[in-house]
Amino acid sequence: MRLTRFSDIGLRVLIYLSRTDASRTTVTVAEVASQFDIPQNHLVKVVGHLARAGWVQALRGRNGGISLLVEPASLRIGVVLRELEGDPELVNCEALSCRLSADCLLREALRAGMNAFYETMNRYSLADLVTGNTGEQIIRMHRSFTASTLSAAAAG
User: Fold this and answer.
1) CA distance 11 to 72
2) Does pLDDT of 131 surpass 60?
3) Segment 95-110 mean pLDDT
C-alpha cells in the first residue's frame, strides 16, 4: 500500500497545527506551504477537506488562517487516513476481465490487510506523532517563520 500525496499533506498539516495551535495562534496556508514546500493551491484543497471533516477551522481574509478544532489526543491516525484516502479497493476486480473473480479470495485478503493497516494506525493519535523532538522542531519552525515574517514587515 502507498499513501497518496493528498494524505501525506493532510497528515503534515494536522501535525503542524497540533503543535503551533498550543499557543492559540492561527497559521496561514502560506506558512504551511513554505514549511513543507507544498504548492498553495494543492494545500488549499487538502485544508478544505480537513475542514469538512471537522478537524480544522479555515478562515479567509486578512486575519484568516487555519487552526486545529480537535484535541490531538482524540484524533486517531487510522481514522484520518481512511478519510483522506477515501477507502479505495487495492485491486478493482470489476475493471479487469478476470476469469478468476468468481472464486478468487485475493480481494478479501487485500481488504483484510487494509483494515489491519487502519486498525494499527488507530493505535496512534495525533498527539503521539508530535511528542519529543518532532513537536519541538515544529515549534522552532513556526517561531522562525513568524520572526522572518515580522522582520520582512518591519523592513517593508
Assistant:
1) 12
2) yes
3) 79
The single-letter DSSP state of residue 74 is G
Q: What is the DSSP letter of 27?
A: B
Cβ-proximal residues to 126 (8 Å cutoff; 6+ apart), any chain: 14, 15, 18, 70, 72, 73, 75, 77, 80
Q: What cell does 120 get? A: 494499527
* Residue 83, burial from CB neighbour count under 10 angstroms (0-12, 13-18, 19+): middle
What pLDDT score does 80 carry?
Answer: 97
pLDDT for position 117 = 94
142 burial (CB, 10 Å; 0-12 / 13-18 / 19+) is: buried
Distance of alpha carbon 153 from alpha carbon 23, whole angstroms: 21
Torsion angles phi and psi, residue 51, rounded to 5 = -70, -45
DSSP state of 20: H
The total of other beta-carbon atoms located within 10 Å of residue 139's CB is 15
